[in-house]
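Weekly sync, protein design subgroup
Attendees: M.S., D.O., the rotation student, P.L. (late)

Item 1: inverse folding check
M.S. brought a backbone from last month's batch and wanted to see whether the design step gives back something sensible before we order anything. D.O. pointed out we never logged the input encoding, so this time it goes straight into the notes. C-alpha cells as presented (799 positions):
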C-alpha cells in the first residue's frame, strides 16, 4: 500500500540508529583470578631455598626468571629414563648440583615434595651436574631461556643458606615459564603431582559420576582438572549400608554442628550424617568457595528451566550408587565443591562462576569406612561451571600418610596458591593450645587452654605475655638507591632515620589510600628492612624501583625471619636475663622506644637475634626476630626466664582487645585502599611539614588533610551489649559512620569501639547511636570520647 505523502515525508526525517558494522563483539571481561596465560603456557614458582620438579617435552621453551634479584639458580635435567643429562635443555655442565643436594639432605623447605617427585620418576642424582644461573649482581627480573631437546624432567632449584638476622642474604623465589611445543586438549591437561603415592586414581569424566570405597583414615583428594568446574560429593557410613540404612552426609546437620555454611580445614572441618555420625573431615582446601545449601542438580531443575531430558548429577549419583545398594532419589543433597553460591540481601540464593583454578583441590579424611560418589557437574545452562563443563579427578591416599591442615593463600589474584603453614614457633605454642586460625597463610593461636582471652589480657596489662607474630611480611631493601626508594614510597621522612632506629609509617597509593602500614628498620647506610602486613608491599616496592630506574633490590625474607613479641610491664625484666649484646651494641636495658639491637640468647655462642622495642599492645614490650632454625631455643629461653614473672601465652583474641584499647589500627578494619592515614587515625605518620622530598600520594594527602570528610574516633557504649565491626552509627535516622573495631575493655569496665564518623559529628562528647538488627529497630546509645581509650600519652610503652 502507498503511504500518504505527508507520512512518507515525516518518516524520511526520522533519525534511525546507526547500524553497527561487523558481528557482535565478545563481552569485555577481565579474569585476573584465572591464569592470564596463553594456552600451552605454564608458570611455576620455585620457593627460595627450595626446588620444583617439572616435566618437559621435546621442543618446549623454558624461561627462568630471577624475580627479586641476586638469587642463584641451579637447573638439573634428566632424560626420560631418569638419567641426569644437561643435554635435555641443550647445555653442558660439569658443576656439581650442590644446592639441590643440600636441600634434599637438609630435609628443609619443600625437600620431601621434591624427593617424592624424583622417586616417582626414577631419577638418580648420583653424579648430577647443574647449569648455574644468576647470583651476585643479578637484577630483578633477570631471565635465561632454553629449549628442550628431548623429553625429560627439569629440576629448578633456588639454593640458599640460613640468613643472618643482621644481614640480608635471604633466599627468594624463582619463576619458571614453560611454553609447550604441543598444546594438549583440555581432557588431557596435566594433573598436578600426587600428594603421595595414590591408592586410587579415578577420572570422573564430564557429565558423569563415579562411586568408590574408602577405608577409615584414608584420604580423598578431589581435583578440578581444568578450573571452573563443580563437583558434588556424597558419602555413606559403610557399616550402616550393610544394615540396609542409607544415611548420606547431611548438609543441614553439618551446617548446624559446624556453625558454618560448609566445613573448612581446622576445628570446624567435619561432615555428618543425619545421626550426627562424623563421616569425613576437610584437611586441605585450595579454593575456599563451596556450597552446602543446594541439591545436586536434578532432572526437575532442567525440566523447569526448559531443558527436558538434560543429564544431571542426581541421576548420575543414582547410577553410580546402585552397585552399593543405595536406593535412588529424585534429589541428592551433597557437599557441592567449587560451586560458588551465596545468599544476597534479598534472601535469594544465587550462583556465579566457580573460584577454582586448574589443579585446585579439596583433601578429606575418612573418619569411618565410607562409600563415596563424586560427579563432574553437567550444567552448561548457567555460569555454575563457567559455561563449559569439564572433568574432575579423584585420588585416594593411605591412612599412613600425614597431611597438614591448610587452606590456600594467594598474594594477588593471579598468584600461585600457597598452603597454610606452621610458623617456626608453632610447636612451642601448640603445647599450650589447639585453637588456631589462619592468618596471612600461617596458623596463629586464638586463645590458650585454661586461660582464655580475658586471663591473657590481664597477663599483658599486669605481667607479661609472649605471642607469635611470624606472619608479618619482611623485605630486605638494599642497594645504592635503597634510601631514595623508601623515602619516595613511605609517608615518613626516612632520611632522618639513624642506623639502629625504627620508624612506623604508612605506605600509600597515588590517590592517598593506604596500601599498608608497617615499621622500617635501618640496618646500615643503604640497608633497610620493611616489615608490614601485606605480601604485596614487596612487589609494589619492586615495581616502584623499576619504574624509577633505581638501583635497589627488594627481597622477601619472611621465611628467613620469624618473630615473637614479649609484651607487658615485666617484659624488660624477663629479657634482660637472656639477651646478650656485644659491648659495641646497645644493651637491652638501654634500648629505647622504636630502637633495635643485635644480640644473642644468653651468651656469645647463643642463637643470634634482633630485638626491637616495638609492639602492638600499648604496653612496654619487645619483639624478637630470629631464623626459624633457632625458634625453639629462643622460645624456651623466653619461657624459662618468664615463668618466675608470671609470663603467659597470648592469642589473637586478647591481642585484639589490647590493640583496640590502645587505638592501634588493623588492615580491613580501620584502613583499606580507600582510607587515607588521616582517616585511619595515624595522621602523625605523614610528614607533610618536615619532609621536603616528594613521595607517592603526597598531593592527594595534602588535599585530603585540608578537606577531611571522615575521622577515626573512640566510642564508649552505654550498657553491656556487644557491638562489632561494620555496625552502623547514627544520629537520628541518618547514618553518620560505622564501627571499625569493638571490644569489652576489662580495665575500663565498659564496651568501647573505634569508629569512622563524618567530621561534622566527630567531636568529643557527641552523642550517637549504634544500630543493631537492621540499624533502626534497635539502637545502643554511645558517645565520642578521647582517642585512644587507654594510655593516650603512650607512657607505658615509653616507660
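Designed sequence read out in the meeting:
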Amino acid at each position: 500500500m502507498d503511504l500518504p505523502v505527508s507520512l512518507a515525508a515525516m518518516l524520511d526525517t526520522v533519525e534511525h540508529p546507526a547500524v553497527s558494522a561487523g558481528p557482535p563483539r565478545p563481552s569485555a571481561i577481565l579474569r585476573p583470578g584465572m591464569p592470564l596465560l596463553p594456552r600451552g603456557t605454564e608458570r611455576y614458582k620455585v620457593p627460595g631455598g627450595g626446588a620444583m620438579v617439572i616435566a618437559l617435552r621435546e621442543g618446549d621453551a623454558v624461561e627462568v626468571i630471577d624475580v627479586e634479584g641476586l638469587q642463584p639458580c641451579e637447573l638439573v635435567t634428566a632424560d626420560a629414563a631418569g638419567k641426569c643429562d644437561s643435554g635435555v635443555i641443550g647445555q653442558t655442565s660439569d658443576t656439581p648440583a650442590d644446592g639441590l643436594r643440600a636441600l634434599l639432605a637438609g630435609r628443609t623447605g619443600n625437600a620431601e615434595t621434591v624427593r617424592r617427585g624424583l622417586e616417582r620418576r626414577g631419577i638418580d642424582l648420583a653424579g648430577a651436574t647443574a647449569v648455574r644461573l644468576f647470583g651476585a649482581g643479578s637484577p630483578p627480573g633477570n631471565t635465561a631461556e632454553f629449549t628442550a631437546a628431548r623429553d625429560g624432567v627439569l629440576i629448578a632449584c633456588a639454593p640458599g643458606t640460613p640468613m643472618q638476622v643482621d644481614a640480608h642474604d635471604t633466599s627468594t623465589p624463582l619463576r619458571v615459564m614453560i611454553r609447550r611445543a604441543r598444546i594438549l586438549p583440555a581432557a588431557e591437561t596435566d594433573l598436578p603431582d600426587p600428594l603421595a603415592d595414590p591408592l586410587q586414581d579415578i577420572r570422573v569424566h564430564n557429565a558423569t559420576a563415579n562411586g568408590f570405597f574408602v577405608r577409615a583414615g584414608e584420604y580423598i583428594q578431589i581435583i578440578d582438572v581444568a578450573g571452573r568446574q563443580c563437583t558434588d560429593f556424597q558419602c555413606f557410613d559403610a557399616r550402616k549400608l550393610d544394615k540396609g540404612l542409607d544415611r548420606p552426609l547431611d548438609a543441614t546437620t553439618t551446617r548446624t554442628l559446624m556453625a558454618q555454611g560448609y566445613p573448612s580445614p581446622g576445628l570446624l572441618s567435619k561432615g555428618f550424617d543425619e545421626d550426627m555420625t562424623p563421616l569425613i573431615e576437610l584437611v586441605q582446601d585450595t579454593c575456599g568457595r563451596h556450597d552446602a545449601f543446594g541439591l545436586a542438580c536434578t532432572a526437575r531443575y532442567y525440566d523447569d528451566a526448559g531443558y527436558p531430558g538434560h543429564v544431571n548429577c542426581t541421576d548420575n549419583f543414582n547410577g553410580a550408587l546402585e552397585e552399593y545398594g543405595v536406593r535412588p532419589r529424585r534429589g541428592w543433597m551433597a557437599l557441592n565443591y567449587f560451586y560458588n553460591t551465596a545468599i544476597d540481601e534479598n534472601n535469594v540464593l544465587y550462583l556465579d562462576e566457580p573460584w577454582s583454578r586448574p589443579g585446585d583441590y579439596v583433601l578429606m579424611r575418612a573418619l569411618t569406612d565410607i562409600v563415596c560418589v563424586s560427579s563432574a557437574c553437567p550444567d552448561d545452562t548457567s555460569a555454575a561451571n563457567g559455561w563449559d563443563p569439564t572433568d574432575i579427578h579423584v585420588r585416594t591416599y593411605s591412612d599412613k600418610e600425614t597431611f597438614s591442615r591448610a587452606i590456600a593463600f594467594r598474594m594477588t589474584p593471579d598468584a600461585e596458591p600457597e598452603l597454610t603453614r606452621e610458623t617456626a614457633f608453632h610447636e612451642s605454642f601448640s603445647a599450650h593450645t589447639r585453637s588456631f586460625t589462619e592468618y596471612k597463610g600461617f596458623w596463629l593461636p586464638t586463645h590458650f587452654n585454661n586461660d582464655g582471652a580475658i586471663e591473657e589480657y590481664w597477663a599483658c596489662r599486669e605481667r607479661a605475655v609472649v605471642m607469635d607474630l611470624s606472619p608479618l611480611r619482611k623485605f630486605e631493601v638494599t642497594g645504592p638507591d635503597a634510601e631514595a626508594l623508601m623515602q619516595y614510597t613511605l609517608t615518613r621522612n626516612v632520611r632522618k632515620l639513624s642506623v639502629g632506629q625504627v620508624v612506623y609509617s604508612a605506605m600509600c597509593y597515588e590517590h592517598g589510600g593506604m596500601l599498608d602500614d608497617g615499621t622500617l628498620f635501618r640496618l646500615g647506610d643503604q640497608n633497610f628492612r620493611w616489615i608490614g602486613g601485606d605480601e604485596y608491599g614487596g612487589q609494589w616496592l619492586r615495581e616502584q624501583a623499576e619504574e624509577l630506574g633505581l638501583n635497589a633490590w627488594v627481597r622477601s625474607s619472611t621465611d628467613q625471619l620469624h618473630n615473637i613479641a614479649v609484651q607487658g610491664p615485666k617484659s624488660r625484666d624477663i629479657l634482660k636475663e637472656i639477651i646478650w649484646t656485644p659491648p659495641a651494641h646497645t644493651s637491652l636495658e638501654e634500648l629505647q622506644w622504636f630502637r633495635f639491637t643485635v644480640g644473642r640468647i644468653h651468651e656469645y655462642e647463643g642463637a643470634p637475634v634482633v630485638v626491637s622495642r616495638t609492639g602492638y599492645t600499648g604496653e612496654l614490650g619487645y619483639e624478637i626476630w630470629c631464623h626459624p632454625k633457632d625458634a625453639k631455643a629462643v622460645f624456651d629461653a623466653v619461657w624459662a626466664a618468664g615463668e618466675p614473672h608470671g609470663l603467659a601465652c597470648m592469642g589473637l583474641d586478647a591481642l585484639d582487645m589490647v590493640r583496640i584499647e590502645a587505638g592501634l589500627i588493623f588492615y580491613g578494619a580501620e584502613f583499606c585502599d580507600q582510607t587515607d592515614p588521616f582517616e585511619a587515625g595515624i595522621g602523625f605518620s605523614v610528614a607533610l611539614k618536615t619532609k621536603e622530598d616528594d613521595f607517592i600520594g603526597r598531593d592527594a594527602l595534602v588535599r585530603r588533610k585540608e578537606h577531611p570528610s571522615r575521622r577515626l574516633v573512640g566510642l564508649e557504649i552505654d550498657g553491656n551489649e556487644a557491638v562489632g565491626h561494620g555496625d552502623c552509627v547514627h544520629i537520628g535516622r541518618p547514618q553518620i559512620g560505622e564501627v571499625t573495631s569493638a571490644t569489652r575493655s576489662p580495665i575500663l569496665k565498659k564496651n568501647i569501639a573505634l569508629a569512622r564518623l563524618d567530621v561534622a559529628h566527630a567531636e568529643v562528647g557527641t552523642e550517637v547511636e549504634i544500630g543493631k538488627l537492621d540499624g533502626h529497630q534497635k539502637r545502643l546509645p554511645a558517645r565520642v570520647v578521647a582517642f585512644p581509650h587507654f594510655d593516650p600519652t603512650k607512657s607505658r610503652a615509653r616507660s
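Discussion: The chain has 16 helices and 43 strands. The chain has a mean pLDDT of 93.
Action: P.L. to compare against the previous round before Friday.
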